[in-house]
Design a protein that fits this description.
Blueprint lengths: L1 E15 L2 E10 L5 E10 L5 E6 L5 H7 L7 E5 L1 H7 L4 H49 L8
């Protein structure tokens, strides 16, 4: 899975001597979504970043690539090999699973709507039958007279 990002901002904060945090704000070229990547940095005595690690394992190759680029750069990264090595499912497959879940939910809602429509139809037919029988009964002459 290849992704293209543009680095919008890079913010590095020193947390303690030798440690820091870094935040990259990226723009995904595919859908114009903004994404924030956090990392933990190890600093040398001069405060220069020696190593940066991602907080989430899944973002490791992205952090490694981000260290090679500066603010404003656009780059493309291929996650295919990393995903295979880590056993991660492809995002497209995950999207298809979500679509199936939504379809199942929709089918359940259609069933509920049909049940309500059937109940309304039964009540309407019952009321119509009651009204017809009542009207018919009022039109019939009385056959029994009490003296």
């Amino acid at each position: 899975m290849k992704k293209t990002y543009t680095i919008q901002t890079v913010t590095h904060t020193v947390i303690s001597p030798g440690k820091g945090s870094i935040i990259w704000e990226l723009l995904d070229a595919a859908d114009d979504r903004q994404r924030k990547i956090n990392g933990i940095t190890t600093l040398d005595k001069d405060g220069v970043i020696e190593v940066a690690r991602s907080i989430y394992t899944r973002e490791s190759p992205l952090v490694e690539e981000l260290l090679l680029h500066n603010e404003g750069d656009t780059f493309t990264i291929d996650f295919t090999e990393f995903n295979k090595a880590q056993g991660y499912i492809n995002r497209e497959i995950y999207a298809n699973m979500k679509k199936c879940e939504r379809m199942a939910c929709l089918a359940q809602r259609v069933g509920q709507v049909l049940a309500v429509a059937a109940a309304v139809a039964v009540l309407w037919l019952g009321w119509t039958l009651f009204a017809s029988v009542n009207e018919f009964a009022q039109q019939q002459p009385l056959t029994h007279h009490v003296p």
